[in-house]
Amino acid sequence: MTRSERKNLLMGLAFISPWIVGLLALTLYPVLLSLYYSFCDYDVLSPPVWIGTLNYTDMVTDNVFWLSLWNTVVYTAFAVPLGLMLSLLIAVLLNQPIMGRSIFRTIFFLPSMVPLVAVAMIWLWIFNGKFGLLNEILSMIGIDGPNWLTDPKWTKPAIVITSLWQTGGTVVIYLAALQDVPRHLYEAAEVDGAKPWHRLWHITIPMISPVIYFNMIMGLIGSLQVFVGSYVMLGGGGPDRSALFYAVYLYENAFKYLKMGYASAMAWLLFLLIVLLTWIATRLTCKHIHYGN
Q: pLDDT (tens digit, 9 = 90+) per residue, 212-262?
């Protein structure tokens, strides 16, 4: 290595050193430390005590753990498909050659820029059973709206609806993919007499299938970590713990009950669950995803 090359290498290392230090100190070290804590009895106030796999085996008999996992699975089963379909529908509409298209794109993207806590506070008012906006609208058409935030049957639907507010980023990703679909495919389909629905199903969806897969995985990961809506709108779990999600229960164990070891074990189990579900989704969809030619 010449002197000039060595100088360039050292200069490059100097530029990336803040990022490397941040990665090691603020990401990698806490992650590895949490793995160690997951095998310890640790309450933050006293030194950790090694207990082996007891934190993991305790989950098997923890009914609240299974309830939080079930609530999260139910939420994910509805929030992810609905979010994917709604964002794709909006993206297809915003991709049409209509007047003011840029303005509409901005309008649909702006809600995703609002902080999640502020979004939760807005929906807290919208879902209010007595004077909320949604029930007021329903009453105008003769429907007696439910108590969204106090009835256990309606808390999860309320959180799912709230999650649809944040589809702006997904819409932008879909739009980028839609604009990359070759126009001659649509023109050929129109010549053959294909209707809009057939063009969407046989051209658009196959051509943007990698993006659909990406959004599905990101939605899956995000929904398994749902936290803000339940914690801000329902105080953590809602009536009868109907909206006690996995991340909320993890947070309570870590910072409310100071069971940091148990919370770390829950975090690592969630990581393994996400990896497993991602692998399953990849195996199930790999034959239906079309990359380029």
A: 999 999 999 999 999 988 898 988 888 999 999 999 999 999 999 999 999
Q: Token pair of 79, please? A: 């929030």
Question: What residues have CB less than 8 Å from 216, skipping those under 6 apart?
Answer: 80, 84, 281, 285
Query: Do 19 and 136 share a domain, yes or no?
Result: no
Q: How many domains does the chain have?
A: 2
- The residues near 101 (Cβ < 8 Å, ≥ 6 apart) are 94
pTM: 0.89
- CA nearest to 54, candidates 38, 42, 43, 70: 38
Closest CA to 267 of 32, 29, 24: 32
| Percentages of the chain per state (helix, strand, coil), in multiples of 5 | 75, 0, 25
Co-location of 9 and 153 in the same domain: no
| Beta-bridge partner residues of 289 | none
